[in-house]
Every structure is written in C-alpha cells, then in structure tokens.
Amino acid sequence: MTVHSTDRPGLDHTAGKADAILKRQRARESSARTYARSFPIVPARAQGMTIEGTDGRRYLDCLSGAGTLALGHNHPVVLEAIQRTVSSGAPLHVLDLATPEKDEFTDALFATLPSSFADKARIHFCGPAGTDAVEAAFKLMQTATGRRGLLAFTGAYHGMTAGALAASGGVTTKQPVPGIAADVTRLPYPYAYRCPFGVGGERGAQLSAQYTERLLDDPNGGVVPPAAMILEAVQGEGGAVPAPDAWLREMRRITAEREIPLIVDEVQTGVGRTGAFWAVEHSGIVPDAMVMSKAIGGSLPLAVLVYHEDYDGWLPGAHTGTFRGNTLAMATGTATLQCVAKEGLAERAATVGARMTARLEGLRTELPTIGDVRGRGLMIGVELVDPEAEPDACGARPVAPQLARQVRAACLDRGLIVELGGRHDSTVRLLPPLVITDEQAEAVLDRLTDAITTVGAAKFTGVQA
Fold it and tell me: Would you call 282 helix, strand, or coil by DSSP?
C-alpha cells in the first residue's frame, strides 16, 4: 500500500526532479552517508509526523530525526520561537556569552530535572552534537579524578568522535581506527533476549551487576580505577534495549561505593521519549552527570552536559568550541521543553508506547519472524529473526538482517519511515514524535504489520514483497 498526497502548491510532483537530486547526492556526498541510502526520497515539506517528498508522496515519520523531533516537524511553538527570536534582533552567535535566551533555556531545562540533581548542578554548553557532550563528560571526569580509563557497555552508542566512539559498542566503525578503545573496559549490558550470560531475564541482569562489582574489586582483574562509567538507561542504536531499573540502581550503588563518577547518556532517551521526562527517573537514580542533545534543541542543533558541582574543576577553555550553543536552538529548546512539560507529553508517550508495544507483542504468535518486542515509552524495537533456525539457550533465534532491510523497504513503500538498529541491524526501531495521534499510531502499526507479513510470506513462497 503506497500513500500518495493530493496536489500541493509549490511542489514539483515529478519523480524526475527527485531522481536528479538523488543522483547528484550520490555523486557529490561522501560514502559515509547513511539514512540517504535507506530512504531514497527527497523531503520537501513536513508537518507533525508527516513528511512530503518533492514527488508529492507522504510518509509517516517514525525516525523523527533519530529522536530529535519530540514535537514532530515544524511544530507551531517551535516556529513561533524562531520567528520571535529572529524578529527581536537577538544576536544569533556570541560564543559563550550570557544572553536572555541562554538564561531562559537553562531555567527551563533545570525545571525538568529531578530536584535532587538540579539543586547542585552546573551546565556546560558543548558543540552542537551529542558526541561533543560525551567528550566533555569524559574530560570533566578525567580532570576531576585524575584517572584515565572508562567503563562502558556492550551494545552502547555514544557518538562518532574519538572518545565517544571508543566507548560505543559497534565494532565496524572502530576497526579502521587503531587503538581507539585502549582505555575502555567493556562490561555486559543486560539484554534479556540475547543475554550475554545465556540465562536471560532478571537473572541475567543480576549476573551483569555481580560481574561488574567483582571485576572492579579484583586486584588481578586488570582494571585500573577508572575516571567514569557511562551508560544508557535504554540503549537506542543498540536496538531499543531497556535496562532493568534494579540493575541501574545497582550500577549507581557500585559506582558510588567506589567513587566512580556515573555518566548517563540521555541524548536519545531525554525529553519525554521513554515515558518520563528523563529516563533516569524510572529507576530513581541520581547520576553525577547527564549528557543531553537531540530533542533539547527543539529540532535545532544543541548539546549540553549537566553535572554535579563537585566535579567542576575545569580551567577556563578546558572544553570549548565556536558553536557552543546557538541562540535560535536555545529559544526553540526552551519552547520544546516547556511544551512537553505543559502538555504532559512524557505521560502521553508512556500511554501510547505501552499500547503500541502490547499490540506488537500480540503479533509474535502470528508472525514468527518477530523474535522480540521491547522498549520504553515511544522508544520501541521489534527484533526480526529467522523463524526456521534453532533457538539458543534463551529461546532467541538468529538475527535476520536481510529480512529487516526488506521490511524497512516495504514500510517505505507503504508510506512509513522506520530505521534499523541492534545487533546486525536486525531490529526495526520506532521513534515517533511525542505528539503522535491515536490514529497515526494505529496507521504505523497497520503498515508495519503489513510489511512484516508480506516480507515474511515472500521469504517462504519466493514471491517478491
């Protein structure tokens, strides 16, 4: 099923124009481009959850700028903030000088944080991408502790700059960079479906915590006291894998008892995505630092590091950059934070996400290619597997990356944009905006179900999906 738009003024509804643009992109952009390979479309307009291409076709966007668009595309409060700021004559770039927009953004951000964290917090405005905030967090803790190494987890994703990449789990992007992870100790992240210990469930999470504690206390374990531990409360690129709340509380206990600063990466989980304003709120832990980006800028580039004041041992210029905060992004960020809070969109994400997850979970018996359904709030993963292969000790069947790619393409044909993640990119990820309507949620599930059903049937019949 392909969804077409009606005619709209100002759009060239021809496939030829889109094809020409895509051809020029392939010829001129680097081979590192990613999303452009998955979605051969040319967006021309967007509103809410809908993207419209130059050819007039419309798509429901369940990628949302990799979680950046908490309010969807071109939300009225975001556009109003841009127009108001531009019309006011405010300076759009003044390095790290104080501005009314920065002051208002900091007020709005701190108002959303758990009071036990915000009351003694400092904020550092970083370069405009989350990866720079991760780098800043590492440098901050290395400076404060005088230590060097880091603790990070399997399945993690923290960015693509050197330190953030070293802490990330993906092997492919690290292989061409010699020595990239020399100072990182990799720990097992609890992943019930593909448990690193082969037991699954709560027991797997318990073993992960026990392993971490014993390794750190073992004088022959090979781990020099580290500068920090970094983790995601829900792994995003790792396949929408939520950490159990009890495990997170154990990580907080283990690090606190050993005076290891705990950094929580909230780049993708923050601003209501998981059904709480910040993912740490589910477990009640108070980290030493939180890394934030994506949705906090209200669709414009912005990244910050918020941390306990006791760690503020930097000298001036210790972590700087030309684009440390952008006036427009601060204005749109303030508008977004206030809108999410006022409209109760975190609670909305919890409600709609639970409904979508329950329906997808119910499809597992009908569609054996669905191995696992998981997530939190509107951060949902559907792991696709080979149903004909033998399951492992935990009942998990082998990943099916080719099947997942076919499902992604079939979704696009049906007017739905979804992306893949997880081990071998075999998990279909859903990151719709928090403003998704009930009707849009049903449409997303209908189109995804149809895509999985059709691709799964084609696998066994040999008919092209």
Answer: helix
Strand partners, 428: 382, 420
Name the helix (H) or strand (E) containing 355: helix 345-362
Q: Distances from the Cα of 437 to the Cαs of 48, 124, 222, 398, 432, in angstroms?
A: 10, 35, 51, 34, 10
Edge-first strand listing for the sheet containing 184-187: 121-125, 304-308, 289-292, 262-265, 228-231, 150-153, 184-187
**313 vs 294: CA distance, rounded Å:** 27
Token digits for 219? 């004088």
Task: Give, rounded to a whole angstrom, the gap between the first and last alpha carbons of the chain.
Answer: 11
Alpha carbon of 338 to those of 205, 215, 321: distances in Å? 36, 43, 27
- The number of angstroms, rounded, from the C-alpha of 276 to the middle of its chain's C-alpha atoms is 15
Which residues make Cβ contacts (< 8 Å) with residue 443, sequence separation at least 6? 60, 416
* In contact, 326 and 128? CB cutoff 8 Å: yes
The owner of tokens 């097992």 is 188
Dist. CA 71–CA 110, nearest whole Å: 20
Put simply, whether the predicted model's pTM sits higher than 0.90 gets the answer yes
* DSSP track, 190-249: P-STT-TTS--HHHHHHHHHHHHHHHHH-TTS--PPPSEEEE-SEETTTTSEEPPHHHHH
State the Cα–Cα distance between residues 257 and 342, nearest whole angstrom.
Answer: 38
**Residue 304: helix, strand or coil by DSSP?**
strand
Tell me the C-alpha distance between 320 and 303, whole Å: 13
**53 three-state secondary structure:** strand
Residue type, 76: P
Instruction: Quote the longest CA-to-CA distance of the chain.
Output: 70
| Residue 4 pLDDT exceeds 60 | no
Residues 22-80: tens digit of each pLDDT: 889 999 999 888 888 888 889 999 999 999 999 999 999 999 999 999 999 999 999 99
Q: Strand 370-376 and strand 419-421: pairing?
A: unpaired
List the structure tokens of 175.
């292989």
CB 152 within 8 Å of CB 184: yes
C-alpha to C-alpha distance for 94 and 38, rounded to whole angstroms: 37
Is 96 within 8 Å of 325 (Cβ atoms)?
yes
pLDDT in tens, 146-171: 999 999 999 999 999 999 999 999 88
Mean pLDDT for the chain overall: 93
